[in-house]
Amino acid sequence: MNSRKSIEECRADFPALKRQRMGKPPIYLDNACTTLVPKQVIESIQEYYTEYPSCSGTRSRHWFAQEVNERIEGDPSKGIKGSRQMIAEFINAGSKKEIIFTLNATHALNLVALGFPFRTGDVVLLTDKEHNSNLLPWLKMQKAGRIKVDFIQPDAQDNFDLDAFEQRLKTGRVRLVSMAYTSNITGYTIPAKAITQIAHQYGALVLFDGAQAVPHQTVDVQSLDVDFLVFSLHKMCGPRGVGVLYGKKELLGQQPHEEDEIEQVLAPVIQGGGTVADATYHDYTLMLPPDRFEAGIQDYPALIASGAAVQYLQQLGLDRIRDHETSLNHFLTEELLNRYGDTGWFRIVGPQDAAQRGGILTFEVKRPNAPGLAADLSEKNNVMIRDGVFCVHAYFNEKFGPQWTRPIAHSEHRMVYRVSCYFYNTMEECRVFLETLDEIFKERGYI
Ligand SMILES: Cc1ncc(COP(=O)(O)O)c(C=O)c1O
């Protein structure tokens, strides 16, 4: 994996991988849901609670608060790099002030949906495969009569259709393009740079939902020229309950009152302690970004540990992480297609070429008793994968019909399963998954 750290050395950093059940280790292939956590991240959380369990120095001036503050806001020019700066560097943001800490990607998406100054009739353009977190906030705004939600369909090969996209921008009132950079169903990564170029040409802003991209490949906000980017630390070896909203400086505001901002500026929708410079019984003046968006006492240990998580990934190298996941996915894809590709009841969802799917492999099984494979895999050999709709109800309901998870006839059963790899997974783990799946298929009489 890395000149300094082999995959085995990486695995030794993850306490959860040392667990055993039935005398066997866990085989964790549910990384698109959430990842395991290395000891470096756990230790940094523990250090906060044991060494300096106080609020941050942005509020109090004492010793403990200064220690917290340095670890979050520390400036390299002053000798210590805080997690906000580390995250800014991780996505190549121009300034750490463009990094807003949120609870998760969902929270970040809602902050944009509720805080962006849409004009009635503005269109927000999505793909057909958005996670509920990048669909419901927009549907809610549509219900309130603020915006119109529109969808761009993929081409015949299920790839992003840049021509149709440009046509939509030419003819529609698209104000914001909001899309998953990498799909959590298929693992497919959209042509992000071309999308921002075309959108900007027609005056639309772009938000990328980077929940499945930022943990797995280099995402450079300046090179992409993207306006907003959201992601979650729990999908990249970090603590639970921390997300990031990146926004270009000029879109986050500079005025003390939100009503005085120019028309493209995001307003903070949650207000309270930490967000205001001053207040009277009648009015208040806002702090500058990012503070105006981070209301109330924050989860300081998690914010500090977020720095430890991105440092860990950076040391491994995003390109190596991506290469490793792709090679596991190539192996899995080839084996699954060789074994079941011709059966008529097994199908890989999305592009067949593993190179287009990063570490994600989603497959559909159309057989009696198709649900329940994930539980069986766990029960038999501690193999953990995901089943269901992966929070993308709209797509599956559209493709399979609204009642597809509850078919009347046994013979109509179908279920979708997702295997998602990360840098700590091994070929051997993939082999155990394949053999266990084969055993279950045999037991069920599928083969
Ligand atoms: C593409 C995508 N967007 C958004 C989310 C939501 O992330 P979170 O639950 O951390 O807010 C997920 C989580 O699975 C995701 O895969």
UniProtKB/TrEMBL annotation:
Domain named Aminotransferase class V is located at 27-430
Query: Which Gene Ontology MF annotations are present?
Result: cysteine desulfurase activity
Provide the transmembrane region boundaries. Answer: none
| EC numbers on record | 2.8.1.7
InterPro entries the record matches: Aminotrans_V_dom, PyrdxlP-dep_Trfase, PyrdxlP-dep_Trfase_major, PyrdxlP-dep_Trfase_small
List required co-factors: pyridoxal 5'-phosphate
Say which enzyme class the record assigns: transferase
Could you name the domain of life of the organism this protein comes from?
Bacteria
The record's section on Pfam families has: Aminotran_5
Q: Which UniProt keywords apply?
A: Pyridoxal phosphate, Transferase
Name of this chain's protein: Cysteine desulfurase
